[in-house]
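note to self: dont lose this again. the chain is below, predicted strucutre after it. 266 aa total, dont forget to put it in the shared folder this time
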Amino acid sequence: MREALKIAYFGQNFSGFQYQPNVRTVEGELFKGFKKMGIDLKTANYKAAGRTDAGVHAFGQVIAFNVENKKPLLPRMINSNLPDDIISWGWAEVPEDFDPRKAISRTYMYVLYAEGYDITAMRKAIKMLIGTHDFSNFTRKFGENKTCVRTIYSADLRVSGDFLIFEIEGNAFTWNMVRCIVSALEAVGSGRRSIEWFKLMLTPEKHKERIEPAPPHGLILKDVKYENIEFEIDDYAWNKLESKIENMIKYYGTLYKLFKLIKEIK
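---
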């Protein structure tokens, strides 16, 4: 039997998703947690939908693996062997050849503090992202045989209180691509760069320029979608995730308000 899981994690205490010796990673904790249950993911045809960098969060990361028995491992069973900053909340029985990397789309969200940006200009730039483009200027360089051509299905920017929320869905993303796009949008929104410059960045055959990615803490892998795969939500695990999120909102929300009040002191 092959099983897929929806995984959420809070990235601030991880050195990225991919396993690395001697540092704490999401994959490393998954390997340890499953080992406690007698499952060696390294020999169970384990695969993940993708990798996130250090400090990046996820809500809808997907992993898949083979299990010897015919009973699924429910998320609540798995969570009891994982640290509190990794929570599995959904599961699905999938075909034996299911590869989570072969998704039909991925969706990311980036949240940034609204600091007097020109929202209209940023939204004009965002519209240019829709469609198929070469994102070489928005990624760390791949090898010569790699391509940075990706298709973006949707992208938008909305205002929520003191924050801007950028959401983008595409068939796939290159390394640092979303964070580099956010940096470019900030440059346009602040007036440091023009919309014409943003358009040029989407045509690397005419203009080549390296842009530094925005900080990782504002980025979350929101969802990964597949054809004909329905994930079942584990209510117990879902409640645990909601409780964790609520506690984090209270903690970081209090800090945000506290330091904002201090900033306002004249």
